[in-house]
C-alpha cells in the first residue's frame, strides 16, 4: 500500500526512530505486528503472526534472532509522522543485535509482560538503552492475560526507571488494545533525530545482510547529509569506494527510494558480495566531498563459546566449509578455523555468542545444507601463561599445554538473576556451587529480587540456566555480560576409549569439579556407546592419572538365528539397513560411537547440587 | 516365508526369465520348494505366510491351492525349458501335514511331473507333530518322501503354552519315533530357545528329549520377536518379559555344547547334523547360492542371479494363475556386488565358511582382525577361508558387516 512514508527526505522533526526491547518472549514481535497493521503497511489478508520473524528457524522456534527495521506512516493531530521501528531479539546470545539497533534510535519501548514482570534481559536491555541516552517508554504487555498484574508490575517498572506507575502504558499486543495510544506516545516522547542536512553525508551501518538474489544489503541510519543512488559512496574504515545500485526503505518489504536524508533509516545495495566489505559499525559517506570524521563505531561481538564442528561423513568436509562461508555472510558473530581431531578427522573450531547461537548454527547447517554434524563439548577461551613466560589463547582443549602452566585466566561475567524472593537461598546455593561471587542484591518489589554475581563464564554457559529454571519452578531469569578474566585452578580432563584419548571429549574444568566431570562422562558414554564385539574400557584422566573408569562389556550375540527359508532378499535388505546404521556411527579407533554420544556431551542433566564444571 | 515381501522390480506377467539367468541351469543343483499356506491355528510368535481356515473362509482351500500349484509348476517347466530334474524338494509351511498323506503325495507327483527327480533326491516335508500318525509316515515314505522335519520347539509345558503350541510335550518325540519306525532315516526336530520364562533346565529337558528321539538333525532357533505378532504385543504391553541377548547367547552355547557332546556337529549357525549325509541338502543349496523354484503363495525363488517372490494371499495366488499369469509379485536381478554380498552373508554362516577370495582387500584385512579377536579361525584363515569360531558364530552378523564395505 502506497503512503506518504514512501517518500523520503522527510524533515527530521517529522521523524521518530525507536526500537522495541524486552526480555525474551515478552511480545515484541507481536506488538510489531499490531503496528504494521494499525499503520496499514501490511494488509489484513497478508498478515501473519510475528510477521518480521522472516527466517524459517525464527518461525520454527518462535523467537527473534535478527533485528528488523520498518518504516511506518503515522498521523497525529493531522501531522504526518514517519516512524522507524526496530524489533529486536530478546535472547541474551543476541544482545549485540539490540546494541546495534539502539544506535539507530532516539527512543525505546521497554516492553514487560504484565504477568511476569521485570526479567533479567529487561534490565540488561534497559541499561543498554540508558547508556545510549535513549528516551524510554515503559509499557506493560499482555494485559489481556488473566494472570496479568498491571498494578504490581507498573510499580516495579516505575521503581526501576524512576517514573510514576501511572506513566507506564498498558497494551495487549494480542488484541491491539492500547497500541494506538502507544504510537501517539512514541511521537510525543521520543525526540526527533538531529543532524546537519547540509553537511557531508554520514550514515551508520547498523546491519549488513547477505541475500542470494540481491547480494549484500546494508542497513543504515543517516546522521548528516544525504545518501542518493546517483552518487558513489565510500566506507570510511577502509576507504573502499562502491557504486550504489539501489537505496531504499523497508515498509515492510524493500522499496527503492530517491535517497535517504537526515535521521532516516533504510538500506543500500552496492553489489559487494561479502558482508565484511560493508561492515556493521562503519560510517558511509559520499565519495566526493565526503566527511572526514567517522561516527563512533561499535564493538564487534566476540565469540564467548567455542566448539568443534565435524561432518559425520569425512567426505562432507568441503561442503561444511562452503556452508560456513555462506552462513558467515549473514552472521558477523560466527567465527571458524579449520582444525583436525584425531578422533573426528577434519572439521572447524567455531566461535559462538552462546549455546543458543551454537545450537541454531548447527541446526541451520544440518537443515539448510543437508549436513550431518558432530559438535564437540563447548568451551570458553582461556589465556594460558607457561613457565617460560609465553602466553597462548586456548580455544580448544587439545591445545592445553599440560605441565608447564604457570597461570591460567578464564573469562568471567557479571550475572543478573531475577527471581521471587522465596528462591533466594536456592539461587545463592547454586551460584556458590558454580564459583560465583555475590555482588549485590536488590528488591524489585516486596517479593521479587535481583541478585548480582560475578561468575566464571564456563560455569554458566552450559547448564546453569536449566539448573536455575528447574530450581525456581521456571520463575528465575538470567542475564550476563562480559566482565574480564580471573586466574583459576583448571585442569584438562581427557576421556580414553581402549586406552586412547578421544580429543573430542576432552574438557577443561575446575580442579574441584574434575572428578565429577570424569565420572559423569564415563558413565554417560558407557550408556551411550553400544556394546561392541570386544570389551571397551572407558577412562577419565588428568594427565596420566586415571580418575574414573567404566567398561562396556563385549556384545555376546549378534546373529539372527531363524530360517527365513529362501527369502535372501530380506536378509540382504536387513544387512543394508544395519550398514546404514553403522554409517551413522563415528569410528573412534575401532569403536563405533553413535553421533548422540557427542551430542550428549552438550546435553544437560540435572543430577544434583555438586559442582559440575562444564559439559 | 516371512510375512512381508521385500520391495522389488516388476516381474513379467508370463513369468519369463532373462536368458542369462536360465543359461547355467543344470550346471548347478536345482531344488524345488513348495509352500503350504495353511495352519490349524496361528502360533503367537509366527509371522510366516500362513492362514487358518477361519481367516480364509471360502476364498481359498487346500483343493484350490493344489490346483493353482499344479498350474504354477506347469508354468515353471515352460519358463525353465530344459530344467534339470530336482535334486531336492522341500515342502514347507505353514503346516504341510494338514494336507494329509494323500495331499502330500499329490504335491510330490506334481513336482515329479514338472521336473522329474534325481535318483538320490532329498525330499523333505515339514510336519506338525499333532497332525501326524504312523500311517501318515508310512504313506508319505511310500509316496517318495525321504526326510521329515518336525516342529517340536520345546518339551516344557509352560514354554509350549507361551508359544501357543497345541501338541502335548511328549508328542514330537513320539512322532519322531513313529517316523523312524515307518522307515525314515532322516529326521529333524526344530527347537526354539529363549522363550520368555524358559529356564536353562527347560532347555536341557528339550535337548534331552531331542537326543532321545533318535533324530539325525536338529535346528535350534532363538525366538525372534517379530513385529505384528501376538507375542510382540504381549511383550510390548509388559505381559511377558523379553529375553536378553546375553541370555540368548548362553542358551545357544548350551544347545551347542549338548549337541556337540552327543555326536552332532554344526554345519550352519542354527543347524546341527549327526553326519554329513544328515545335512539338509535343500537348505544348503539356498546358502550356497544355488537355483530353486519356490512354488506356492509368497514363495521365493532364485535362478541364476534373479530372485523373485510370489503374491502372498492364497486367493490372489490362485486367481492370478487361473488367469494364466505368473504369480510373481516382484523380482530383482542381482548385480555382481549384490551376489558377492549375499555370498558373504550366507556362506559365512556355514561351517565350511567362505573363501577369502570373495572378500575385497579391506574385507580380508578385517577378517585378519577378526581372527585376532578370536572370531574367525586362524587355521582356516591360513588355508584361505573365513570360518567362524564358536565365539564368532554368536556374532556372525556383526562380522559380516565388518567384512563388507
Ligand atoms: N495473551 C497474550 N499473548 C501475547 C501477547 N503478546 C505476545 N503474546 C504471545 O507471547 C509469545 C511471544 O511473543 P513474541 O512476539 O514472539 O515475543 P518476542 O518478545 O518477540 O520474543 P523474542 O523475539 O524471542 O524475544 C507468543 O506466543 C505471543 O503470541 C499479548 O498481548 N497477549
Ligand atoms: C515356520 S515353521 C513351519 C513348520 C511348522 N508349521 C512348525 O511350526 O513346526 C518352521 C520353524 O520356524 C521356526 N520359527 C517360526 N517362527 C519363529 C520365530 N519367531 N522365532 C524363531 N523361530 C521361529 C520354528 O522353529 C518352526 O518350527
Ligand atoms: S504351526 Fe508353524 S507355520 Fe503354523 S503358525 Fe505355528 S509356527 Fe507358524
Ligand atoms: Mg521477537
Automatic annotation (TrEMBL), chain B:
It comes from the Bacteria. Its main location: cytoplasm. Coiled coil: none annotated. Residues 24-265 form the Radical SAM core domain. Keywords: 4Fe-4S, Chaperone, Cytoplasm, Heme, Iron, Iron-sulfur, Metal-binding, S-adenosyl-L-methionine. It is found in: Cytoplasm. PROSITE patterns: RADICAL_SAM (PS51918). The keyword 4Fe-4S applies. Probably acts as a heme chaperone, transferring heme to an unknown acceptor. Binds one molecule of heme per monomer, possibly covalently. Binds 1 [4Fe-4S] cluster. The cluster is coordinated with 3 cysteines and an exchangeable S-adenosyl-L-methionine. SMART domains: Elp3. Belongs to the anaerobic coproporphyrinogen-III oxidase family. HemW subfamily. This is Heme chaperone HemW.
